[in-house]
Amino acid sequence: MGDYEIPWAKPYFDGAELEEVKGSFETGWLSMGKKVRKFEEVMAELVGARYAVAVANGTVALDLAMKALEIERGDEVIVPAMTYFASASTVSYQGATPVFVDIDPTTFNLDPIRIEEAITTKTKAILFIDYGGNPAAYDQISQIAKAHGIPLLQDAAQSLGAVYKGAAAGAQAPVSTMSFHLAKVMTCVEGGMVFSDSLKMDSRLRTLRNLGEPPGEKYTHVALGTNARMTDISAGIGLAQARKLPFFLAERKRVAEHYDELFSASENGVKKVKTPKIQEAESRNAYFFYPVLLASRDQIAQDLRAKFRIDTRIAYPVPVYGQPIYKSQKLPFRKMACPVAEDVSKKVLNLPIFPGMSSRDIEKVVGAVSRLVSSE
After folding, report:
1. Which 3 state secondary structure label does DSSP give 356?
2. pLDDT given at position 255
3. What pLDDT score was predicted for residue 270?
């Protein structure tokens, strides 16, 4: 991923993915078929959901989830102020208004303490994420949603492999969505999923996924859906990746723990680097991201690329309401005071982390960051 000695992310493939793709060509079934259904079953079991609907990507998964929840023009949806753009843009797709709420300074997830002040009679959903695979305070968020009778939607694009209070993360909410983009913990190259525990919701999602055509009712369209179907080729890649998920998670944990060990040392200024923390007991970070906070983040990121050929990501450089399309008022939004999101988005830098990353590479990253921080 880019011309760097150490990339930010690196997908892991072996012959299994190619064999799945070849199998699809050999059977002649390339579009949505048996492999998609099998992939749905595998993923539902992995995250502990009753139902799973495979779709083309994580963004369309969110869009369909909003439609299934009947989010409409004039509604409001609470969204973390620091998240990927799709968490908010899919609210705007519905003609609804995202309401941006501040994040927790430890986990970078939606801060439960800040939710209630944002709730109005127009609030029709609360959306939360698990930033970089670090579990959000689900119990607190869920209690608030239930107290106000507001549906809860989990954007679990980064959640796969995380554990929240002893249970798999990714499908705690009544409706949740996931992404299998190339850089994710496991990938279909492109792909997404919507999870639910309601047969009615599952049926509605399957209809919306297929141009409003209910399963088994060819050329009968009962809703304004879209073509969000996943192909058997993508699902086959996902099935091969899912078999390797324990390895992927163990590798990410190994890399993160090595980072933790090196950044906890006292020499070379690494004490100035703030590293991720897990807030909830009996919980585990999936380490899709390994974020650090750096006062001179932009310069350090530039120097890592130019001087050390180390790629990084800034997730995310501004709160979502600072994105040009919202800042220009082309799309309506509402925001609460978000001092934490504004501070973190100026400092956060996501370091390289991927299966197979060598100890030498980890040490080079920490050494380079340490040198650059020490020279400030």
Report:
1. coil
2. 98
3. 63
Q: Measuring CA to CA, which residue among 231, 240, 196, 237 is closest to residue 34?
A: 231
> In the 3-class helix/strand/coil scheme, how is 264-302 assigned residue by residue?
CCCHHHHHHCECCCCCCCCCECCCCCCEEECCCHHHHHH
- Assign 344 a pLDDT band (cuts: 50, 70, 90): very high
Q: Is 306 helix (H, G, I), strand (E, B) or coil?
A: helix
The residue type found at 252 is R
pLDDT at 266 over 60: no
* CATH number listed for the domain at residues 245-374: 3.90.1150.10
For residues 62 and 194, give the distance between their C-alpha atoms in angstroms, rounded to a whole number: 8
Domain-wise residue ranges, the chain: 15-243, 245-374
Higher pLDDT, residue 372 or 375:
372
DSSP 38-52: HHHHHHHHHHT-SEE
- 55, 194, 206, 209 from 215: Cα distances, Å: 15, 16, 7, 10
CATH number, domain 15-243 = 3.40.640.10
Residues 6 or more apart whose Cβ sits within 8 Å of residue 338: 81, 82, 100, 101, 102, 103, 319, 321
Band of residue 274 on the pLDDT scale cut at 50, 70, 90: confident
**Residue 353, number of CB atoms within 10 A of its CB:** 23
Element (H, E) at 99: strand 97-101
Q: For 14-51, what is each residue's pLDDT tens digit? A: 999 999 999 999 998 888 889 999 999 999 999 999 99
DSSP state of 118: G
Residue 269 has pLDDT above 60, yes or no: no
